[in-house]
């Protein structure tokens, strides 16, 4: 037994001495004349932060892989609150003391890993799950079927350096096995094919807190890890060519100004139309008043005419029944009666003359007002209906146009009756003048002629006059009936004119409000091109982080940091591999020093 141990010790000595000698030789080859390592330097340093989360997003483990681009080999110092460090480049020993990492770098690229504990990520990441509307833990989800919802929330972690949240973007990727997941849907993300499987990707911009939801039908649920990468949004964003867009905005601004000018002209036209409608209403009111006076005076005119007719008939009959004895006595009465009839006709004649003048003035005012109404073609109305004017204003314009057309049609249908009134009044007046003149001539003839002869002529003349007057009276009755019917019909026409005036007045108010709105719109869009360019510039400044200078994630003492990236993964939700009964776990492969030590046991 002693011989065996002695042999082992001798073997170990043989093995260790060359190794030690070689190590010493290597150290000597890289030393200065005094035997100590020289100071080294590096051009830049990068950090890749790896973090493992559980399936709900709670942080578990974190380590950082540091990479140095060495420009002068030698001893160097890095900083970080690591729990332990590991050289990933060679077998040289690294020293960790009081958050200082000391190492000797001889290669162009040097890597080492540092493990962290309790270091906060810049983002709080929460993942929750619902199956068929019920919240379940990842363990409870395993192997289940149904409708799955995955909710992901990202927020700023106020315990971490804010520069990463303000300048970094996150990309979140969820892989889905197509044999397990179907009908994958999301609103804010992008669903893409990855071989036979699907992948949902979300992006979180710098300074943003987001929430995402993925929905899918699942069978026998298992889920791969959710992968999250954080990278600086430091790429310079090229400013888009906004000339064409600005030109479009300028066209829009000009078009808005033109619309405002058009509505202004429309407002002026509607105001003119409303003023014309008011004049028309006033003229129509005067005409209505005159036609009503004419209608109201018709009964007096008929009664007066009836009295004249009766008087003429009585006088004619009296002369036929009278004798020569009383002719001289009745002559004076007859003369007086004829004078009174002549005077009555004169008064009627004067009344008709005044009535004719009043009617002429009223009708002239009405006719001028109606003729002032502008003509609007059907094409104009069609263009109006297709225009972008406020629908309510458009409706009122069309209604006003329709009422105007209806009123003008009614007026055109009755224009003959309107025109016939004045000539009829002239004819009646002329007839009365002729009868009055004849009566006055009779009275004078009676005064200067032979009594018997005059009486016979008078009797004959009165008989003819009475007969003609009856015809005149009958025509007068027909005329007054027509005036009465015209008066009644005109009330409806005047009512339409009044409605038209009310409509145009309301329309003027509506178009005036519309003009105020388009004027405000034109003023607000006049600077639209400049405002749009300013907004583009602001957006570019918000997302262009090209001026961001990277800082170390682990220590502010670290210098020449060129980049820091984050690689974050959640635990997968998978079934454990089945272990065969009585199967011994595979023994971990032993290293050289472990195997050497076993020799001494």
TrEMBL record:
Residues 24-43, 572-601 are annotated as: Disordered. It comes from Salinibacillus kushneri. This is X-X-X-Leu-X-X-Gly heptad repeat-containing protein. NCBIfam families: xxxLxxG_by_4. Residues 24-34 have a biased composition (Polar residues). Gene3D superfamilies: Methyl-accepting chemotaxis protein (1.10.287.950). Keywords: Coiled coil, Signal. Residues 1-22 form the signal peptide. Residues 578-589 have a biased composition (Acidic residues). Residues 590-601 have a biased composition (Basic and acidic residues). It comes from the Bacteria. InterPro entries: xxxLxxG_rpt (IPR023908). Residues 429-468 form a coiled coil.
């Amino acid at each position: 037994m002693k011989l065996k141990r002695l042999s082992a010790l001798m073997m170990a000595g043989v093995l260790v001495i060359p190794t030690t000698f070689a190590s010493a030789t290597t150290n000597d080859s890289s030393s200065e004349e005094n035997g100590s390592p020289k100071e080294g330097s590096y051009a830049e340093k990068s950090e890749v932060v790896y973090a493992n989360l559980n399936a709900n997003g709670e942080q578990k483990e974190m380590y950082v892989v540091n990479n140095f681009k060495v420009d002068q080999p030698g001893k160097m110092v890095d900083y970080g609150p690591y729990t332990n460090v590991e050289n990933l480049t060679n077998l040289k020993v690294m020293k960790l003391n009081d958050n200082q990492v000391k190492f000797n770098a001889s290669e162009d690229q040097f890597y080492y890993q540092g493990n962290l504990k309790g270091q906060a990520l810049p983002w709080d990441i929460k993942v929750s799950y619902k199956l068929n509307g019920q919240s379940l833990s990842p363990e409870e989800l395993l192997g289940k079927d149904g409708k799955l919802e995955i909710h992901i929330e990202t927020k700023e972690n106020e315990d971490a350096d804010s520069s990463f949240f303000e300048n970094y973007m996150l990309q979140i990727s969820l892989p889905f096995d197509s044999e397990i997941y179907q009908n994958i849907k999301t609103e804010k993300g992008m669903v893409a094919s990855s071989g036979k499987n699907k992948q949902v990707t979300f992006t979180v911009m710098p300074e943003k807190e987001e929430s995402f939801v993925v929905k899918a039908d699942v069978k026998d649920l298992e889920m791969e890890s959710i992968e999250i990468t954080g990278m600086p949004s430091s790429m310079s964003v090229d400013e888009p060519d906004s000339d064409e867009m600005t030109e479009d905005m300028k066209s829009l601004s000009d078009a808005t100004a033109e619309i405002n000018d058009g509505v202004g002209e429309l407002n002026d036209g509607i105001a003119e139309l409303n003023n014309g409608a008011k004049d028309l209403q006033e003229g129509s009111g005067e005409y209505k008043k005159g036609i009503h006076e004419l209608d109201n005076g018709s009964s007096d005119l008929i009664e007066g005419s009836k009295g004249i007719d009766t008087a003429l008939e009585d006088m004619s009959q009296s002369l036929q029944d009278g004798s020569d004895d009383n002719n001289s006595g009745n002559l004076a009465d007859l003369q007086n009666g004829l004078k009174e009839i002549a005077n009555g006709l004169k008064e009627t004649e004067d009344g008709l003359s005044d009535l004719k003048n009043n009617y002429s003035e009223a009708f002239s005012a009405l006719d001028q007002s109606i003729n002032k109404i502008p003509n609007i073609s059907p094409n104009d109305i069609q263009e109006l209906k297709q225009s972008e004017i406020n629908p309510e204003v458009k409706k009122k314009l069309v209604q006003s146009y329709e009422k105007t057309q209806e009123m003008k049609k009614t007026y055109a249908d009755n224009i003959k009756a309107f025109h016939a009134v004045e000539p009829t009044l002239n004819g009646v007046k002329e007839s009365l003048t002729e009868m009055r003149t004849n009566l006055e001539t009779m009275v004078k003839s009676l005064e200067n002629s032979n009594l018997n002869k005059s009486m016979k002529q008078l009797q004959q003349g009165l008989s003819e006059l009475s007969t003609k007057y009856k015809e005149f009276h009958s025509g007068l009755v027909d005329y007054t009936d027509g005036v009465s019917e015209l008066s009644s019909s005109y009330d409806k026409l005047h009512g339409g004119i009044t409605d038209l005036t009310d409509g145009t007045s309301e329309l003027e108010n509506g178009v005036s409000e519309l003009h105020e709105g388009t004027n405000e719109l034109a003023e607000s869009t006049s600077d639209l091109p400049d405002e749009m360019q300013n907004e583009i510039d602001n957006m570019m400044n918000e997302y262009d982080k090209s001026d961001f200078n990277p800082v170390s994630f682990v220590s502010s003492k670290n210098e020449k940091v060129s980049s820091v990236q984050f690689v974050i993964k959640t635990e997968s939700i998978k079934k454990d591999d089945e272990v065969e009964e009585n199967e011994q776990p595979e023994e971990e492969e032993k290293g050289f020093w472990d195997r050497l030590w076993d020799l001494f046991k």
